[in-house]
Amino acid sequence: MSPSHTPDPARRNPQTTAAILEAALAMASESGLAKVSIEGIAARAGVGKRTIYRWWPSRGAVVLDAWAQRLDDHLYKRLRSAQSDDFEADLKQMVKGAWLGAIGDTRPVLAWLIGEAQHDPNLAAELRERLIGPTRELVAERIRRAKDDGQVAPDIDPYRAIDLIYGQLYYRLLVAPGPHDEAFTDSVADLALRGLRPR
Amino acid sequence: MSPSHTPDPARRNPQTTAAILEAALAMASESGLAKVSIEGIAARAGVGKRTIYRWWPSRGAVVLDAWAQRLDDHLYKRLRSAQSDDFEADLKQMVKGAWLGAIGDTRPVLAWLIGEAQHDPNLAAELRERLIGPTRELVAERIRRAKDDGQVAPDIDPYRAIDLIYGQLYYRLLVAPGPHDEAFTDSVADLALRGLRPR
Amino acid sequence: MSPSHTPDPARRNPQTTAAILEAALAMASESGLAKVSIEGIAARAGVGKRTIYRWWPSRGAVVLDAWAQRLDDHLYKRLRSAQSDDFEADLKQMVKGAWLGAIGDTRPVLAWLIGEAQHDPNLAAELRERLIGPTRELVAERIRRAKDDGQVAPDIDPYRAIDLIYGQLYYRLLVAPGPHDEAFTDSVADLALRGLRPR
Amino acid sequence: MSPSHTPDPARRNPQTTAAILEAALAMASESGLAKVSIEGIAARAGVGKRTIYRWWPSRGAVVLDAWAQRLDDHLYKRLRSAQSDDFEADLKQMVKGAWLGAIGDTRPVLAWLIGEAQHDPNLAAELRERLIGPTRELVAERIRRAKDDGQVAPDIDPYRAIDLIYGQLYYRLLVAPGPHDEAFTDSVADLALRGLRPR
DNA sequence: CCCTAAACGAGACGGTACGTCGTGTCTTACG
DNA sequence: CGTAAGACACGACGTACCGTCTCGTTTAGGG
């Protein structure tokens, strides 16, 4: 039987990994995302293409990895830190902190990743597991507490509430462009809250 | 001035055009959208690649054209026909008619187009002009009437209301997958309406 | 029966013809012969491609026509004018007059035409009929007189004598490059004559 | 310095190389030389076009390589083997052996290559370096010995003597067609010798 | 002198090949 | 064995010309 050549993560060279992720991010921001390619990343990182294919299945996965690594702590810390007793304030803080603070200027990368994910189911799954899912869980948690507090109507499904909130953000990002500023994020929270509050 | 070689639409061969659009749609649904290529469309339509490049700037533009052409009447008729006095009923009908009726099974094509548009500004513009913009205008019109009727709060910006409604649909399509059925579209309208109604 | 659409030379537009030939020559000398194309000639002459195809079968034929037209009188006059009683002098004059005088700087065009003719039998035939054949006849005539005069050995086939003379010229043009100057043309005649003279 | 991507000959795959050359020759003889294309060779050899472009600059270079490889030993052995004391016999043997024996049926390939070389200076150089030059050197060597022996006049430049001989062959091949048989090659040598011998 | 058939400009069209790029697999040589 | 380097088969890219084919629009010549 063939040994199936599963690479051994223990022997992975961390410097090489870092060089690849760095190169991916640098090319994404410099040359424009459309020109990101495995070949380009390999050349820029001074790395064999083989090495990239050994550890990542696609260019999207590399970019996601590079982008998410810089994001993770940032993003989840901000989402977790909104723990006052005022749901409206917390929601505004979460939306602003996540969308403008943590993601901020890298919004085009997110858009590119989601675009790529429409052609690549594996990337889509990775994206959900890595970014979308955790974010939803953290926000859902806060919404559940708001339901307990009576600040959100009891018949609201937290995940549908998230659709209502994040839908606005992604819709503007991906479909109907417009400014992404504090006025917008506040308005997103306000508009959603009008529908979430108990009547 | 440079000759610029702008082709003359009057000399365009309608049979050729039809063959190309048909081939594009057929390949999109048969072989999977990832495999759509100018080369493939040309071969399938029995057409020179040059002829495609003469009239469309990219494969995305061809698919958009083919897809939108079949959609247009359908979609806009459904959006226009919701003219009862009950905004809730009309909204549900619009969302259901557009998302499930007109778009229906071709939702993956829409997702693919928006994905493609994230890499291609021209396609993004075309998509907005051809699909997103007109849809928004038609819905905005109905919302304005609902404001006049007092069924929607006077301080609501119709376009932000559309973000609230369509955001949910596109978010589920592009970001966080889930069923697209009548229960969902009704819920989309319900949830949005909770926030839009006068208090 | 189909009318076969043989074009009527009487209705041929002489200005158009002139414009095409002029454009062909101009492009040949300016842009380099490798870039000569029917499309290019048509554009430059402000003429439809159809018009070129109506009167010439290939780009080689156009260039040959253009080139030969300027050459003909020149070339044949020079070949005919060598009618002294001194065959050696006449031969040198013929070779020099034809190769350096009439053809002169357009030698690359001739090389290109012969190159093209290796791929295109029609052009090869045209070239022989238009240039090679007549030249050979004129020279053969003078050689026959030299045989009568006793300046060339009686067992010499005039056409083989021409092979001996012109072979050197074309060999240098097409195969083994070297200078084309008066020293060379004289040497060509000298060397050939050594073999042609009666022993 | 620029990386310049010079391919490393040590890593060249000999099987691939052989497949390409074989395909080139096969297509040249089967489909006719006019139809030889990089695309066709690649398809026939089961090889990527990139691989051809990596090692050869043009289709002409591929055909030359394929053709010359089969020719080389053959041709030069024949030219070298004419080492009797009779220059006339040796010359006839060289001309016949090279032109009818070694080249033989592949004469159209040679004509096509020289035709191609009229449009492609790189190919012309390669052709001279690979075929014309070495041939000339070998023949010049024998002529020099003939001068030493007194069988060729002392004032004869060996290279001009070669022009005289080979000129006839190439002239017939490229310019004024005629049979290529033993009568012809003998006549070529005879006619040339009349001019080369001491008076 | 008009009428009609052609030659003409323009360029769309189906093709073939071009030369380049990126993909994902592979082989080689090194540490 | 992981790695840098890059050759390789493949498929698509976007471009250039090919030769054929409509389109109107001149432009003659024969009725």
Descriptive report:
Chains A, B, C, D: Residues 37-56 bind DNA. The structure is a homotetramer of 199-residue chains. Chain A is mainly alpha-helical and 199 residues long. Chain A has two domains: 1-55, Orthogonal Bundle (Arc Repressor Mutant, subunit A), CATH 1.10.10.60; 64-196, Tetracycline Repressor, domain 2 (Orthogonal Bundle), CATH 1.10.357. Chain A is 72% helix and 0% strand. Chain A contains nine helices and no strands. The first copy, chain A, has helices spanning 14-30, 38-45, 49-55, 59-80, 87-103, 107-117, 121-149, 158-174, 182-196. The longest helix of chain A has 29 residues, at 121-149. The N and C termini of chain A lie far apart (66 Å). The structure holds a DNA duplex (31 and 31 nucleotides).
